[in-house]
Amino acid sequence: MHRIRHWREYVLVAGDFAVFNLGLWLALSVRHARIQELGFFFQHFPAFNILFALWVFSAYAIGLYDLRRIRGLEFQLRGVLTALAVNFGVGVAFFYFFYPYKVVGMTPKTHLVLTALFGHLAIFLWRRATVGVFRMSQFRTRVAFVGETPYIREVREDLQRHPQLGYVPVPLKIGAVDIVVAEATWLDRHWHEVEETMGELVESGVRVMRLRDFYESVMGKIMVERAVSATWLLSRVLSRRRGWYGPVKRGMDAAGAAVGLVVLFPFMFISAILIRFFDGPPVLFGQRRVGHLGREFMMWKFRTMAPGAETREAFPADGNTGESLVTPVGMVLRRLRIDEFPQLWNVLVGEMSLVGPRPEWTREVEALERTIPHYRIRHLVRPGITGWAQLNFRATRDPGDSIEKLRYDLWYLEHVSLDVDLTILLRTIRRVVVGDAKVAPARSRVLYLDQEEAEHAAHIGALLRRHRN
């Protein structure tokens, strides 16, 4: 299922290396006012292509390989300009600090500036061209959906909004389908209606997939209803709690938090002074959050709201999330995510991790458990400063947003690994640039649990609550 999307990402990466080298050749030609021979170009090729690998790495962090988001002109332009600024700094550091000029044999100045300009202009044009090609019907996989459920409607609408992902929804018709996505329960109940068509499709070699597998692969999240299955919980989540992953991750968390506290101390010191001077004491704000296995702890942040803001209700009926109480200094700290820096202390002492589901306020958890009986499943891993849900969704404003966010948290629980953690840390750089206001609200804001599933969810929630201190 991931093969098509990876193929497209590989095309983008290969093309980026090609256009960066084109930018290098243009830079050399413009700098010396004549078309450069290949010999002179290849003198610069080794050192610059090491740099280009770093540029591709930073472009990934900025989100220029995120097929779901690169379709729009605004995102492409903003992303390329951000990459230009970051990558020029990377180039200066590479040639003058981290890669000795005696080894490179050069200290490029004008060549570096022109290569960065021409290369990123070419990247922008390359993105425009490839997205246009990806949207063409002959490069897209035809998907027919069997069933009519809210999740089928959601994924079908998502594919229509993001044609560059490589799929096009089509009617169930012999000879015009590449993949059939079937909702198992609906298929069992209506098998007689599609029996003949499904049989012919299978005989012709058309691939048939379960809706939940296709949904998870394309959307990057899991249906919350799937988590009421004891089989899913035992085989896909609890089975991952053993082995070397836990100790290694804890060691990386402790080391990363210690380094982060040292490196970021100047920013934290300045932030504390600004809060103390403009907003008055206290500088730090502590709030009770629910952590690993439901244990409560005090999570620390720089204070960004007026004193007394913590007395508000969880998910107030009037929709007031307290944004009006944010101070001017707090607004800047929130926008740059500096208010989260003190949580490195929570990571250092083991209450949090660098990556994991975001710890929620105890009052909100109590309210959400009345709507989502098995909500505490997300507490099976240590909460994090950043996480998969934070990359893909905004801060929760109501229970509907929390349901959507839980879908991403469950995906993380099922796929937790060091490479996923590292990917999330890298992509967090891009999320800092994207404000919550630019993230659309959840489309599917309710749970679809029948009576039996609701009972299973309640049992799972009760079992997990036993671990609470």
Strand content: 5-15%
* Spatial extent as radius of gyration: 25 Å
Shape: flat
State the end-to-end CA separation. Answer: 42 Å
E-strand count: 9
Biggest beta-sheet profile: 4 strands, parallel
Strand ordering within the main sheet: 2-1-3-4
The structural class is alpha/beta
Topology (SSEs and partners):
Layout (H helix, E strand, L loop, with lengths): L2 H29 L6 H25 L10 H26 L2 H4 L5 H25 L6 E6 L3 H12 L5 E3 L9 E4 L1 H6 L1 H13 L3 E4 H9 L10 H8 L7 H19 L1 H15 L4 E7 L5 E7 L25 H8 L7 H6 L4 E3 L4 E2 H10 L12 E3 L1 H5 L6 H17 L2 H16 L17 H15 L4
Parallel strand pairs: 1-2, 1-3, 3-4, 7-9
Antiparallel strand pairs: 5-6, 5-8
Helix pairs in contact: 1-2, 1-5, 2-3, 3-5, 6-9
Provide a descriptive summary of the structure in words.
This protein has three domains: 132 residues, no CATH class; 80 residues, Rossmann fold; 227 residues, no CATH class. Strands 2-1-3-4 form a four-stranded parallel beta sheet, sandwiched between helices. Strands 6-5-8 form a three-stranded antiparallel beta sheet. A two-stranded parallel sheet has the order 7-9. The two termini are 42 Å apart. It is flat and about 75 Å long. By secondary structure, it is α/β, with parallel strands linked by helices. The protein contains 19 helices and nine strands.
